[in-house]
Amino acid sequence: MKIKFVPVVVLLLLILIGCEPQQQGERILGMDIKEVPSVPYSAAYNEATSIGVREVSISLDWARLEPTVAHYDNSLPGIIDSFYPQQKADLTLILRPLDTSGPRMPADLADLSYDDPAVISAFDDFLVNLHANLSALNASGKLKWIHVGNEIDAYLGSDPIRWSQWQTFFNAAKTKIETLWGDAVEVSSVIQFSSLNDETTRDLYLDFLAGLDLSVITYYPLKSDFTMNPPATVTTDFDLLVSTIPDSDIIIQECGYPSSSVNKSSELLQANFISSVFLAWDKYMDRIKLIDFSWQYDLSEATADQWVEDYGMSDSQYATAFKHYLWTLGLNRYDSTEKAAMKQLKDELATRNWEQ
After folding, report:
1. Euclidean distance between CA atoms 188 and 197, whole angstroms
2. Under a CB-based contact definition with an 8 Å cutoff, are residues 152 and 189 in contact?
3. CA distance from start to end of the chain
4. How far from chain centre, in Å, is Cα 23?
5. 278 near 16, Cβ under 8 Å?
6. Maximum distance among all alpha carbons in the chain?
7. Where are the alpha helices (DSSP H) in 159-264?
8. Is the pLDDT of residue 188 over 60?
9. How many CB atoms lie within 10 A of CB 199?
10. Mean pLDDT across the stretch 51-57?
11. DSSP state string for 248-280
């Protein structure tokens, strides 16, 4: 009989909290696939699926695919349709008419509210065009989730008018998606975990959640200065998540922890975070159906610098910490070498007999 050894970090955590790893069950492992100079995207994708990843996501900005109304750029949908239908993992499309940093609408709609009939009509047409350019993906059955809006709470905040406008827009989009793709695709919007700690925003989200197919969250245990809470925070955070959202399945669409000392972290703490997430997921495996880890490889420094600018953080007192947060979220380094976090992820999966 082959004996499986439990990694030391996992064993210590098990002793501390008095529980055992659970088998995979119906849980789905996702990962944000990243290519680096020495690992092209297709190879990175195969690396991920070889360890058990069965969900990947693609984000599509409305403004990029439709710079002005009815003028579509279908190059990226064409790439998606040629690559993903033949692959092993299921696909999530994150459509971003609204993203963390704000609205992403065609230029000639930029001054309109989300509930404006012109905005709703244009997005309906956008969805029709997108569907028509994903014929192979649609036929493959690989498209399982469509999220309309990413970290919408960053823009909607505690403003009930904005939430009402967004809900009108989302409801129309969801109806259109169901008409085009049918019931096999689950439809939601993505919010940040941190908004569950804000009573006003939380209540507005819970009202909105009633019309969603499931709750979709991004989870990074950040402090306001972009330093990290300790990995042990995961346990109480997952308790809060599940108790706050008692009547809905949950997806954690982004789950990550940087390794930079600037963020008061390290590669060891990042690996400990992976262990903490799996132990908390074991506890709530009947509620949290999917966790997508961010991300497979670190970004280049140039990309991190560009994202600091894109997110409007260049003049912030926290610009350096924000940069290092983005820069070091990878489970592997940019030079393609493995961090402790990737090894820990593999150990957690092996402990649970995860399907490869």
Report:
1. 20
2. yes
3. 21
4. 23
5. no
6. 67
7. 160-181, 199-209, 233-244
8. yes
9. 9
10. 98
11. S-EEEEEE-----GGGT--HHHHHHHHHHHHHH
